[in-house]
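Q: Give me the 3D complex with zinc ion.
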Amino acid sequence: MTRRPNELRINEQRFWASMARSGEIGRGRTTGMSRLALGDADKQMRDIFVGWCREAGLEVSVDRMGSIFARRKGREDHLPPVMVGSHLDTQIAAGNYDGVLGVLGGLELIRTLNDAGIETRRPIELVDWANEEGARFNPPMLASGVFAGVSRLDWALGRTDLQGNTYGGELERIGYAGPAPVGGRPVDAYFELHIEQGPILDDRKVPVGIVVGGYATRGMRIKVHGECAHAGGAAMDVRRNALVGAAYLIVALNELGWRYHPEGGRSTAAQIEVWPNLTGILPEYALVTLDFRHPTVEGVEKMKAEFDDAIGEAAARARVRMEIAETWRFGDEAFDPECIGLIRSAAEDLKVPYIEMLSQAGHDAYNMTRVCPTAMIFAPCDKGISHNEAETMSPEDAYPGVNVLMHAVLARANR
Ligand SMILES: [Zn+2]
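A: Here is the predicted complex, encoded as structure tokens.
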């Protein structure tokens, strides 16, 4: 060991250069990113990432959902690994920080341990979860969900994008339909670093947030069944316009978010598909994807009850039929007190200011709470802007979180 571990710090230049390289892969419309899961840019970034992992001496494997695992041997290599990572895919209009920070932060901590000649008792495994965003293949956090037994593999591989391409087919096309089984193996602990995607850390000028829980989130897809009719010939009182039903529903959902806004609630109508979506004909079908969130489980359940009523009212008003086609939930999972404690100790040892906070967004870490003790670290992003090409953070805002991540992982891997 060349240095006392508590003096160990990441190589800032190398880390930021890797972040910058990632920012060149899958440019967005302006300065941002558009690196949708299993697209060509995702493949290119995966290839670069795998190259970096091999250079760092890691053993790379890919599972059948396309998640990439890069393993650093432990002294007692048979022990379950300490896992660290996040995701390299982005939204269609995004920044270069989101989950990239957590994956390349994990890589940097391994490179730093290599440089310092530090071995750990347990192996450390770096992961890039496939399709965290769910932007192309709904739902989000899909591959970690299969890893954690939340979703079935064959169902996930059959998910389709708007062009009708399947997840499994696209995985084959980019060469990342790996042979490794998905999950079903012991993991010692999971740590994830991510940008906050909210304004709290940036407002308070605190570099590290220790995530102690999440906003309880309920998501669903609602099918609206109406009837085609002539836009001129059909009188108002005989119409069953699916698009109008969807519109009433979306407005009710938005008002639900406003009602709960004082206590931190929020609601999002994110996507709509309409058929036939042409002029001159009333649409007979719409599919609305939405979610709502609240800091507490009791709060989100109250929102859910009110929204159930709103579905009935919107359907009656538009004379259409509505059906909840799919539901998902996350955010009520518990993070592990011991892993949270390791992050807290690391921040205190490094004299990095921190606050404890809830996550407002969904993360792969939520799924991992079902597999092993799990904890998360947040880093600030400018004004909390995320899922927007203006998403940005300064390197000085990134380094403390990576150093804290490194020391927490090191402590756990030597436990
Ligand atoms: Zn993310």
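A quick observation: The first helix runs from residue 12 to 22.
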